[in-house]
Amino acid sequence: MLAWILGALVPLGVAMTVLGVIAFRTGWVMRPTRRWVRRPRLYGVGAALAGVGLLYMAATYFVLAGRPDGLSSHPWPALAGNGVEFAGIVLIGVSQLRPRRGRRAHPVA
Q: Least C-beta-crowded within 10 Å: which of 19, 30, 85, 107?
């Protein structure tokens, strides 16, 4: 069961991180989300943070789950990954807001 979850989380986290870096560097956003994203670079930072948080959370959970010294009873490393992932999701949401009055949205490449 744990390997099944790991096999699903790692490719998703890697894909989110790669697409976030691409969006940050070039301003390109995938077609399904292009309609709502107003600030592609901020979207890229948020997607990269969400992907890294997901990878960190999965890695710490699976590393700590097999330790015999009882360190797995402390969930703080996995919760730190959740915090990073949540920060990325907040940035993705902010990237969909309209810019303030007088400022232009970043042009999509």
A: 107
CA 36 to chain centroid: 17
Q: Which two tokens stand for residue 5?
A: 């979850």
pLDDT digits (tens, 9 = 90+) for 77-94: 778 888 999 999 999 999
What would the pLDDT profile of 42-55 be if each residue is shown by its tens digit? Answer: 999 999 999 999 99
User: What are the residues whose beta carbons fall under 8 Å from the beta carbon of 39, sequence distance 6 or more?
Assistant: 94, 95, 99, 105, 106
Query: How far is residue 4's CA from residue 10's CA, in Å, rounded to a whole number?
Result: 10
Q: Which residue has the tokens 């292009």?
A: 34
